Amino acid sequence: MPPKKSSSPKKSAAPAAPYTGKWAAVLAPRQKGEKRHWLVKSEPETFSFDDLWKSPGRTTHWHGVRNSTARNFMRDGMKKGDTVFFYHSMADPPQIVGICEVVREGYPDDSAFDPGSDYFDARSKRDAPTWYMVDVKATKRLKSPVTLHAIKQIPALSEMALVRLSRLSVSPVTQAEWDTIVEMSE
DNA sequence: GCCAACGTTGGC
DNA sequence: GCCAACGTTGGC
Questions:
Q1: pLDDT of the residue at A22
Q2: Which nucleotides of B are covered by protein (CB under 7 A)?
Q3: Residue A5 — pLDDT band, cuts 50, 70, 90?
């Protein structure tokens, strides 16, 4: 359903400034059929790749992200069919353990509307959601997980968002980075 | 609009 | 447990 017409200018939940700088390209319009790549982090004690693998349809809602840059990647960047590395943070060792696919594009994170949820955020309204999520489906467990340590050894991966924006729970991965890491995992 | 204080992430 | 790197908040 298209948004209701309003007499007042539409107030967007997005930050006023468009996301600029190095990562703006990953939110830019795409060529038809272009696929992009991402990385999501999860603490295995909270939700591991195995947990996802055992979930119905090997699929989950990537809810609870409360950082606006990560939100923008989910709301505006991630498209159906994009591939996603699943990274274990706060793990020993921290590493990429699996591959997922985006199966549903950005939609409002309803955990923000639930006062009973750990992720409740009173500022997020149903008619103007602050927070978004995507659905991802696990497609492959890496034969050999790729550790953060190993990634840091590779000059070609030194500009990875995972390394540069180290606290972001959702980040873009370039085609070259994707290929390099997939190769390392085989 | 500045910036100090505070909170969170996450590697080590 | 420590602390660096940031994002957010709020006083002014």
A1: 58
A2: 8-12
A3: very low
